[in-house]
Amino acid sequence: MRYTLVTLFPEWFDSPLAAGLMGKAREAGVVEFSFANPRDLTTDPHHTVDDRPYGGGPGMVLMLEPLVSLLRSLPPSRRGRMIALSPGGRPFTQELARELAREPALTLICGRYEGFDARLFDVLPIEPVCVGDAVLNGGEVAALAVIEATARLQPGFMGKEASGEEESFSNGLLEYPQFTRPEDFEGHSVPETLRSGDHAHIAAWRREQSLLATLRCRPELLDTAPLSWADRKFLASQNRFRPGKNLYIALLHHPVLLKRKIVGTSSLTNLDVHDIARISRTYGLSGFFVVTPLEDQRRLLKELLTHWTVGDGAASNPDRAEALTLVRPADSLAEVVESLTASCGMAPLVLGSSARPELDKKGREKRPALPFATARKSLDKRPVLLVLGTSHGLAPEVLAQCEGVLPPLRWMDSYNHLPVRAAAAILLDRLLGDRS
Predict the structure, then answer these.
(1) Rounded to an integer, what distance in angstroms lies between the CA atom of residue 431 and that of residue 373?
(2) Helix orientation angle between 199-217 and 229-238, rounded to the nearest 10 degrees
(3) In this model, does residue 7 exceed pLDDT 90?
(4) CA-CA distances (angstroms) from residue 424 to 249, 313, 341?
(5) Of 154-163, 222-231, 240-249, which gets the smallest average pLDDT?
(6) How buried is 114 (Cβ within 10 angstroms: 0-12 exposed, 13-18 middle, 19+ buried)?
(7) pLDDT in tens, 422-431
(8) Do 202 and 209 form a contact (C-beta atoms < 8 A)?
């Protein structure tokens, strides 16, 4: 495979490309490297390659003329597919590494300073690629990561070809733990399975350990990894910490917004209670509070729960009965918070939900929405109470009591009027997902 490295600092690559397997592959002709420096195509005495950004701001931006002239001067067979290492690019994954490894030639363009003039991607077919969510001094480190990941997939690069496909991320999962001699070290032994000589047993153990490592360290990879039913069953048996246990829902019927944005009280509905209870049980929540100040509504709720949890409904539909045991009546949101504080030993983090952003009288956002990732992390530290509004949503005074408000669902579409039970399912899935 032929690599062309476009960089202001070609000397940076001297040691990495000469060491270890990369050096041997280079000597054997498996990989080939050439360098191109934009400074070589400048015409001024100072060999200037950067300039101040339009609109002001700190730092300098790489100039177009020398970079474009250099790239256009490369023979097409040497240039191949052009990749710019940029934080605003497509994430670099093992899948993308495989895709790039099939190319006969790659040109890797290393950014510096504040990055590239955005018009670079308009005038040339260059693909921006990002190797990670961290700030680097330049694209050379990122380019080396792309080189390592793609070169090792070339025939003849690895000492054993199977090694390239038995690494972390190769099958969408992290790699299983590895061991070598001595058999015992400071009281820690190599697992007995690996010493058994039973290759089928060893393969099964390694698969399970790979699944466990991914669950513990990179659980988001499980969303896209190819998992069998046996894999899923194993993960479910091992996933002892269920963040849903720290999550509660309160379905508020007062104070909520009615038509014409009037604050008032909505009616309790059978469908909301049933469906949100089933959703809560599916995602492993510890409680579902139905909040209404109206005595007749609470009496209706009590009759409904009695029928389905201890009456005739419990015998005919035990799954429904199990879900409805999560339901707890309450007069007010304050009562819910007080109850959870007493039972959990600490006050819950109260999160609101709304189909619209909170705006002040001048149409400005009162506070930024709380990202789902931030709310998810809170489940590791304290109980979280998610408050849902019936009718047209929570009243402003309720939102003011919340420590944070989750982002509106479908906020980029003009029509955003989900029923509360559908919103509950989506919110819980974004907070908990398959790993709840």
Answers:
(1) 7
(2) 60
(3) yes
(4) 9, 24, 23
(5) 154-163
(6) middle
(7) 999 999 999 9
(8) no
φ and ψ of 90, to 5 deg: -65, 135
As a whole number of angstroms, the distance between CA 287 and CA 335 comes to 14
Q: What is the mean pLDDT of residues 286-290?
A: 97
Please tell me the distance from the alpha carbon of residue 268 to that of residue 293, in angstroms, as a whole number: 11
Question: How many residues belong to the chain?
Answer: 436
pLDDT tens-digit map of 60-89: 999 999 999 999 999 999 999 999 999 999
* Single-letter code of the amino acid located at 149: A
What is the rounded (10 degree) CA torsion for 385, 428, 288, 381?
A: -40
- Give the 3-state DSSP-derived string for 263-293, with helices as H, strands as E and coil as C: EECCCCCHHHHHHHHHHHHHCCCCEEEEECC
pTM, entire model: 0.81
The owner of tokens 């990055």 is 115
Taking the C-alpha atoms of residue 16 and residue 19, their distance in angstroms, rounded to an integer, is 6
Cα 3 to its chain centre, rounded Å, is 32
- CA 156 to chain centroid, in Å, comes to 35
